[in-house]
Design brief:
Elements lengths: L3 E4 L3 H9 L3 E3 L16 E4 L8 E4 L2 E5 L4 H6 L5 H8 L4 H6 L2 H7 L6 H7 L3 E4 L3 E4 H6 L6 E6 L5 E7 L9 E8 L2 E7 L6 E2 L1 H8 L6 H11 L10 H19 L5
Parallel strand pairs: 1-3, 2-3
Antiparallel strand pairs: 4-5, 5-8, 6-7, 6-8, 9-10, 10-11, 11-12
Bound molecules: flavin-adenine dinucleotide.
The site of flavin-adenine dinucleotide has 32 residues, from strand 2, helix 4 and helix 5.
Length: 257
C-alpha cells in the first residue's frame, strides 16, 4: 500500500529518488493491482516530469513514456501493429491510465505491447543508461527510468495476435512476428517470466530453412515449455502458443495456411 508519494520536480530528481529505493508511479495500474508483487510503500509521481507526446522525428516515431495505451491506440502516427497491441487490454479504464513506459518496465509476461515493440525493433531512451533496444531492457530486467520509446522506420510485414479464452480473460499466449529485409523476429508472451524472442527459430525462418506451418510449429514447440496455469495445462498452453506463432509467421510471409 502506498504510504508516501513525492512529486519529483524533474526526471533527474525522480531518478535520484528511484536510486534510493522509491518506486516510480506512472499510471499506477500495475502498482495498485492487488496481485502485483511490487512493494510500493513509497512512490515518486512521474506525471508532469516525463514526456507524454507522440512526434515524428527524422523518420522515427517518438512516444513519451507517459503516453497512455488509449493515446497510442488512437494516434495516426503509430503503426497498426502497436495500435493493435495497445488496444488488446480489454478494460478501457485500464487503457486510459496505463502508460507505455509502465508497461515496458512492469515487464509482464502477458504484455500485449512488448511483443509488438520487439517486432518493430523499438528502442527506449532512459535517464541513467541512455538508449537501448526494448529487447535489451526487458531481457536484462532493467529498471532505469524510461523517458521515451523510439520506433525506427520500419518497412516489412508484421502480425500481432493473441489467444484468449474469453474477451476479458488474461491471454493464453501473445505473439508478434515481423519480417523485414531478410530479418525475422518472433516475440512470444505468457511462456516464461517475460516476453521472449525465439532467436534460433527466427534465423531458420529468415534463411528459408523453415517453410511449412508444421515445420515452424515443431520448431517453436521444441523451444517453449510453459508450466500449468490456474485454468490451463502447460501442454495446452504450449500447443496454443506454437500454433499461434506458426500461423503468424506464415501470415507474415504472405502465405496463409
Ligand atoms: C485489470 C488489469 C488488467 C491488466 N491486464 C494487463 C495485461 O493484459 N497485460 C499487461 O501487460 N498488463 C496488464 N495490466 C497491468 C498494467 O495495466 C500494465 O502493465 C500497464 O501498462 C502498466 O503501466 P502503468 O503506467 O500503470 O504502470 P505503473 O503501475 O505506474 O508502474 C508499473 C511498474 O513500472 C515502473 N515504471 C512506471 N513508469 C516507468 C518509467 N517511465 N520508467 C521506469 N519504470 C517505470 C513502476 O515503478 C512499476 O514498477 C493489467 C492491470 C489490471 C489492473
Amino acid at each position: 500500500m502506498i504510504r508516501e508519494a513525492i512529486k519529483a520536480a524533474s526526471a533527474a530528481e525522480a531518478a535520484e529518488l528511484g536510486k534510493k529505493g522509491m518506486v516510480y508511479l506512472a499510471g499506477g495500474t500495475n502498482i495498485n493491482w492487488a496481485a502485483s508483487r511490487i512493494d510500493a510503500d513509497r512512490v515518486v509521481l512521474l506525471e508532469g516530469v516525463l514526456p507524454k507526446d507522440i512526434n515524428e522525428k527524422e523518420g522515427s516515431i517518438e512516444i513519451g513514456a507517459l503516453c497512455t495505451l488509449t493515446e497510442i491506440a488512437e494516434n495516426s502516427l503509430i503503426p497498426e501493429a502497436l495500435k493493435l497491441g495497445a488496444g488488446f487490454i480489454p478494460s478501457r479504464n485500464i487503457r486510459n491510465m496505463a502508460t507505455i513506459g509502465g508497461n515496458i518496465a512492469a515487464n509482464r509476461a502477458d504484455s500485449y505491447v512488448i511483443p509488438a515493440l520487439l517486432a518493430l525493433k523499438a528502442e527506449v531512451e532512459t535517464f541513467e543508461d541512455g538508449r537501448m533496444s526494448v529487447y535489451d531492457y526487458v531481457k536484462n530486467e532493467k529498471s532505469s527510468l524510461i523517458l521515451k520509446v523510439i520506433l525506427p522506420p520500419f518497412s516489412g510485414e508484421i502480425v500481432v495476435d493473441r489467444s484468449v479464452r474469453s474477451s476479458a480473460a488474461y491471454p493464453t499466449a501473445t505473439v508478434a512476428v515481423s519480417i523485414s529485409s531478410g530479418d525475422c523476429i518472433i516475440a512470444l508472451g505468457c511462456m516464461n517470466d517475460h516476453v521472449v524472442r525465439l532467436e534460433e527459430v527466427e534465423k531458420a525462418v529468415a534463411s528459408g530453412k523453415l517453410k511449412t506451418e508444421a515445420d515452424i510449429f515443431n520448431a517453436v514447440h521444441e523451444k517453449i515449455n510453459p508450466g500449468d496455469s490456474l485454468k490451463e495445462t502447460g501442454s495446452y498452453r504450449r500447443y496454443i502458443a506454437s500454433t499461434l506463432a506458426a500461423h503468424s509467421v506464415r501470415l507474415c510471409l504472405g502465405e496463409e495456411a
